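Chapter review. Work through the record for Type VI secretion system amidase effector protein Tae4 before attempting the end-of-chapter questions.
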Amino acid sequence: MAGGTPLLERIRYLKFFGKSPNYQNYENTCALQVSYAFNYGGMPIKNLCSIPSGALQGDNEHKYCTGVPKIKELLLNNWKRVEPYSLKNNKDFYKEFCTVKELSQILRKNQETITILNQKRVQELKKENKQFFSTLQNLHQNGIITMDIDGWRDAGGHTTFWDKEMGGFLDETNYLNDERQWVFVRELCFWKI
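Structure tokens for Type VI secretion system amidase effector protein Tae4:
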């Protein structure tokens, strides 16, 4: 599945064999897309010192990461360590909105449902997420972003690029302003590029 344009290759494969691609199966390709950007944007993953275990080998000899944790690991081990966000540290940082421990008191997930255990805290987190989106817009710099998001059953986060010209995420997704009541960003990491 990896190599070239991963999503389009997989869809082309399914169509060739007379199968209808279920586009919902391909919603979680953000890490592959960021990997593709690295590989064809002048920073091939295969040339980095530390490649996460489980990276896929594409037909084009490039490596591809699947999952936000793998992209995060790749950046932390090969690029820069991030420090907590502050007005003085606004180039390579992380912003933690809530801890993993606190999360167990806020949401309960199983394969079928997500239950909000503390509606007030969820509202506070969503408000903090929205405020931090404005903070990102005021940085006026491009970057790579990883987000840990715990309000989904089928993924644990999202990775994309921040475009200073757009003042937003390059893929136009915005989980910091997500309208679904149970979706919020638990931690965001930003690396300036």
